[in-house]
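User: Please fill in residues for this 71-position structure.
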């Protein structure tokens, strides 16, 4: 029996939680303030933009990694 790697995409999980919060609040199942739901989405957006910027800066700094081949 082979071991299977289980990978959990953190951003997708957090986005799914956000959608669940939004739908449950819209349906009236939970009594969370709309400002709190919006704050969750804004926090998730801020984290994703910050990680994207860090990735872009590292990509520029590393100059795209090893190109390989001869010059």
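Assistant: Residues filled in for all 71 positions:
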């Amino acid at each position: 029996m082979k071991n299977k790697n289980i990978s959990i995409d953190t951003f997708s999980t957090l986005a799914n939680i956000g959608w669940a919060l939004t739908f449950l609040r819209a349906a009236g199942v939970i009594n969370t303030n709309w400002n709190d739901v919006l704050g969750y989405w804004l926090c998730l957006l801020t984290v994703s933009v910050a990680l994207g910027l860090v990735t872009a800066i590292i990509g520029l700094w590393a100059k795209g990694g090893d190109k390989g081949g001869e010059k």
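For context: The mean pLDDT is 84.
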